[in-house]
Amino acid sequence: METAVDGKDGLAKMKSSPGIKLVISDVNMPNMDGLTMVEKIRGELVNTTVNIIMLTTESSPAMKERGKAAGVKGWIVKPFKGDAVLETFRKLAS
Amino acid sequence: MMTSDINQNRPVSKVLVLDDSPAHADAIKRFCDEHNLVGLKVRKNRLLSVLRSNIDLGAILFSESYGGSLEESAEIAVKISTVRPELPIIIRRESSPTLDGLPEGMRRVLCAAYLAGDMAPLRKVIDEYIFSLEYPNALVRGILEITESILSSLFKDVSITWDTPCIVRDRIIFGEVFSLIPLESAWCRGYMMMQAEEQPILELLDRHEMCDAPADFRDLNSLLGEITNLIWGSFKNRYLGDADALARNQVQVPLLVNHKQKYISFGTANPQLCFVYHLTNEQSGHTVKLHQRFIFNLSWSPEDFSEVRQDIGAVVEAGELDLF
Fold it and tell me: Which of A74, B6, B55, B300 could cross-link with B296 by S-S, CB 3.0 to 4.6 Å?
C-alpha cells in the first residue's frame, strides 16, 4: 500500500508505481485537490484502468458529477462505515 | 451562578457580576434573565485568578462601590481591563448614569454607566457589545447536530453533551492546540476553530486504541484535523449559498496569534459564537472538553441565511459506497 499527502504527491506516486490497482482519495487537499488529480491520472498519465474511489466530506451532486466525468468509479461521504465497503475495496484492488 | 427563565432557544452570554449590593441583586438578576445573560459571581480574593483562567465571558457588570472606596474600585477596574482587555466593563453608579466624576484611569477602561433604577444604558451596551450579531436559531441548532453526529461517529462508548451556546468577547485560546478553517458562503465568511487540551485527548486516543503506538502530539493533530474537516464539510454542504457570489469575494485579513498570551485575533471586534462539548467515557467517567468557535469576521448577512435541502435520491448516504 502506498500513501500520499496530497493530490500532487498522489500523482507522483501513480507515475512511479504503475502497478497500483485502486486509489482511495479525498477531494479537499492542499497543493492539488483530489478531482484534479483524477483528471490528470486519466489525462496526462493516460491511465484508464486504475479504480478510483473518492472518500470525502463533499456530498453535492455537482461535485459527484464532476468526479464521474473525470473517471471516478465510486464515492463515499465521510464518516466512513461498513465492512461491506472494505470488502468492495478488496475486490477492486485484486 | 444565577440562571433561571433564560430563553433556551437563544445563545447566552456569561457576565461576571462584581456587585455586592444586596439591594440591587434582584434587579440585576432579573435583567440577566430577561436578556439571556448568565450571571457569575466570584470571591474578591479569587477575582484575578478567575479572570486569568479560561472562563469565557461576554462582559463585566461592575459597581462603583465594589472595592470599598472609589480609588480601590478604580484600581480593580484597571486591573480587570489589563487582564481581559476585550471585555466591556459596565459600571452601576449610585447617582449618575454617566462616567463623569470618575478617576481618569477608571473612565478609560469603562464603556458605560447605569443606575439601578434605569437599566436602559446597560441594555444598550449588552446589545452593542455582546448581542450585536444575530445568529439564526436554525444555524445554532444545525451546528450542534452536525458536531454531535461527527463526534459520536468517531468515539464509541462516549456520551456527548454540550453547554448552552454562548456569545463570547474574549480572544483567549482554550488548551494547547487548536485547528482553524475558513468558512465561506454567499451569506457568511469567517473561520471555525476547534480548541483542545493536549493531555486529555492523548489519553482518549490511548483508551480507545486509536493509534498503533502510544499516542503523541502528531496523532492529536491528525485527530483534531479530521474532526475539523468533517464538521467543515457538513457545514459547507448544508449552508453553502450562491457559488458565483462567493467567487467574487476575495477579501482576506491577517490573523494574529500571540502564543505567549494564548491570544488570537481575527481583526474584528465582533463577538464569537462559542460551543463547548463534553465527551464523557461512560465507564470511567473521564471527560474531554472541546471548544468550538465561529468567527464571522469577513462578512455576515443573517438575513440571507439559507440551508441546502437536497433530494434524498441525489445525495449519497454518508458512509456508504456509491458505485458509478
Answer: B300
Q: Where in chain B is the domain with CATH 3.40.1550.10?
A: 137-313
* A88/B323 Cβ within 8 A: yes
Q: Which residues on B lie below 8 Å from A72 (Cβ)?
A: 324
Collect all residues with Cβ–Cβ distance below 8 Å to B242 and sequence separation of at least 6. Answer: B186
Boundaries of CATH 3.40.50.2300 in chain B? 13-130
Which residues in A1-94 belong to E strands, given as ranges?
22-25, 51-56, 74-77
Cell readout for B117 is 433604577
- DSSP-derived secondary structure for B88-134: -EEEEESS-SSSTTS-HHHHHH--EEEETTB-HHHHHHIIIIIS-S-
What pLDDT does B314 receive?
A: 46
What architecture is domain B13-130? Answer: 3-Layer(aba) Sandwich (3.40)
> Is residue B155's pLDDT more than 60?
yes
| Alpha carbon distance A14, A27 (integer Å) | 17
pLDDT of chain A, 94 residues: tens digit per residue? 899 988 989 999 999 998 899 999 999 888 888 999 999 999 988 888 999 999 998 888 888 999 999 999 999 988 877 776 788 788 888 7
Q: By the CB < 8 Å criterion, does A21 face chain B? A: no
Cβ of residue A57 closer than 8 Å to a chain B Cβ: yes
User: Which chain A residue's Cα is nearest to B228?
Assistant: A57
CA closest to B234 among chain A residues: A57
Q: What is the pLDDT of residue B6?
A: 67
Measured between CB atoms, does B222 come within 8 Å of chain A?
no
Residue A80 with chain B: CB contacts under 8 Å? 319
Among A64, A73, A76, the residue with its CB nearest the CB of B320 is A76
Which percentage of chain B shows pLDDT scores above 70?
91
B229 touches chain A (CB under 8 A): yes
Domains of chain A: 21-40+47-93 (3.40.50.2300)
Tell me how far apart the alpha carbons of residues B159 and B280 are, in angstroms, rounded to a whole number. 5
The CATH code belonging to domain B137-313 is: 3.40.1550.10
